[in-house]
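Per reviewer request, we include the raw input and output of the structure prediction for the construct analysed in the revised manuscript.
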Amino acid sequence: MIFGKSKSEILKSSQCEVFDIMKVGANISRLRKSAGLTQTELADRLNVSFQAVSNWERGQSCPDIANLMELAKLFGVSVDRILGSERAAELVTDISEEKAPKMSAEEIKNFAPILDETQADSVVRKNLLDDNEDYKTTEEESRSEDNEEPESLFTVPTSLLPYLSDDLINELIADAVKKDGIGAVPADWLPFVDEDVLSEIAREIMEKDGISAIPEDWLPFIDEDSFSDMVDIVCEKNGIGALPSDWLPYIGEEWISEQAKKAVEKGGKDALPTDWLPFVDEEVLGKIAREIMEKDGISAIPEDWLPFIDEDSFSDMVDEVCEKNGIGALPSDWLPYIGEEWISEQAKKAVEKGGKDALPTDWLPFVDEEVLGKIAREIMEKDGISAIPEDWLPFIDEDILSEFIRKRLKKK
């Protein structure tokens, strides 16, 4: 296995000698001035930008190996005079001569920013991968005393990935999955893996173990065409209910809405999984709900659909039901999703038209307490305080209710 946390006993290397990028910058600046060159003149000699030289001297970046060798040649000094480290100079010289020197993981991380992809691949293969006998540990040696599974035998730190070639990264990922399964791939490697390679691996996983075996953290990094193909295959073969809910945020709303519509047309409202609702276009869901209402009545619309139906469709269905059959025909589980102002206005009209009994009890918690108080006052003024239904009292505005009580006491 090639991934995992680095351990000193695995790397079997001494502490590396690290060059100081600030000192390197100071050395370049001093040598440039001694040579009587401006930053612009040095940049021209090296065929780099003025900003690059400025960044080197300020310690913001470091010359790559090719430029370090050119600087040493230009100034007539050894590389270690620039880097301030014999070990670092030795490594630079070996790498420039296309040798892959023995390096610790820390040395590789330190040198990575000045390596090109070919150089980085070479030193990683030489020092950190399983073809390097110097870094190998037997499975028996890597086991702990309590017989736990062995730690990762070889390590490529995530910090090196930006410097490695796509070919090497893809090779490592493919090998890891082949040897140890998808769990061998750390999530922080995914942004560096070619999406076509990852997609091919994901498809193989799906064909072998099913779509739910593909880790959710892989989904943003699978190419769009492969993603769509896998989704289509699963839905066509096993229905939309077979699609894992954690895939939905990565699928387009238009596709989800179209599939939702087809599912309901074919299998009825129960064929639309609840976890799909937040991802269906609210207008499409509103149209589907209206068709259900026209066929089977408003109570046939599932309550868990209500928060996801568009406001206009929702209001139209409510108005249609109330105008046709009265407010009592409106299911009580719809009330929390209807505005208080509309409910209060309908409550007022219902009592004006049909009296206090025309206001359903389950509407009371949703009527504005001041509006209910005013309705109650009108009833009291007409028929007396005892005509106000007792179950209204907890929902009447406190000031209005106090007024009723004072008037009643005054009469007594």
